[in-house]
Design brief:
With 253 residues, the chain is an alpha/beta fold. The chain contains ten helices and ten strands. The strands form two sheets. Strands 6-7-8-3-9-10 form a six-stranded mixed β-sheet, with helices on both faces. β9 and β10 form a beta hairpin. α3 packs across α4, α4 crosses α6 and α6 runs parallel beside α7.
């Protein structure tokens, strides 16, 4: 029997000033699954991703109507603690953005902000998070060295570990492998497959093969509209909408 959606989006519209960027989006996202958001550049998928933890609040002139429910809680309610929300629903960006500090301090940064002071506890969090991000073996002997000395792929896994350290429920990933080489990309893809056992993952990707490889559900965006969302295998084999088929087969985009 299907569980209730982890995230339920109802009638979501987003405006930049007078310009509407998202139109009446309705989407349910299941727990412990990977949902891929696909579509051509400028179609609204990254904007939509950022609505899920209110990152768009940081942009002037943005206005949002509709509802985004995370485990039944309307995150756009005036009562929502946005700092707490972003702890629960964290984001990994397109380019790795490690802090200019040691590997250890990158991971410990979030827990410290949230009040963890004991070194033994921080040590445990750092090791656990790096293990979860499949980076422990590569990083354990250089924890006190600068994170900026890691390769691009290692830096992206470090950013994932930094996110996991604050124990989120949902991971938002905005094209997390677009700046990585094929081997690093494969490592991040394998990692997402492991992480979905504990987390709900929503990933924006321009890579059709990646969406087909790693996601359970795919949602196709076009010109600010959600054209369709369905089981990934079904969408790639028998999409419901001709526009989806044209995009997946490379006729546009």
């Amino acid at each position: 029997m299907a569980e209730a959606s982890k995230i339920q989006v109802e009638g979501l519209n987003l405006f930049y000033g007078d310009n509407q960027a998202l139109f009446d989006i309705k989407l349910g996202i299941e727990a412990n699954s990977i949902t891929a958001l696909i579509g051509p550049s400028g179609c609204g998928k990254s904007t939509f991703l950022r609505t899920l933890n209110r990152m768009n609040d940081l942009i002037e002139s943005v206005r949002i109507t509709g509802r985004v429910l995370v485990e039944g809680e309307d995150i756009y309610s005036p009562d929502t603690d946005v700092v707490s929300l972003r702890k629960r629903v964290g984001m990994v960006f397109q380019r790795p953005n490690p802090f200019p500090m040691s590997i250890y301090d990158n991971i410990a940064y979030g827990p410290r902000i949230h009040g963890v002071k004991k070194k033994a506890v921080l040590d445990e969090i750092v090791e656990r998070s790096l293990r979860q991000a499949a980076l422990w073996e590569e990083a354990k002997d250089r924890l006190n060295k600068s994170a900026l000395g890691l390769s691009g792929g290692q830096q992206q896994r470090l950013c994932i570990a930094r996110l996991l350290a604050v124990e989120p429920d949902v991971l938002l990933m905005d094209e997390p492998t677009s700046a990585l080489d094929p081997i690093s990309t494969l490592k991040v893809e394998e990692l997402t497959g492991q992480l979905k056992e504990q987390y709900t993952i929503i990933i924006v990707t321009h890579n059709m093969q990646q969406a087909a490889r790693i996601s359970d559900t795919t949602a196709f965006f076009l010109n600010g509209y959600l054209v369709e969302a369905s089981n990934t295998e079904k969408m790639f084999q028998t999409p419901s909408d001709k526009r989806t088929e044209d995009y997946i087969t490379g006729r546009f985009g």
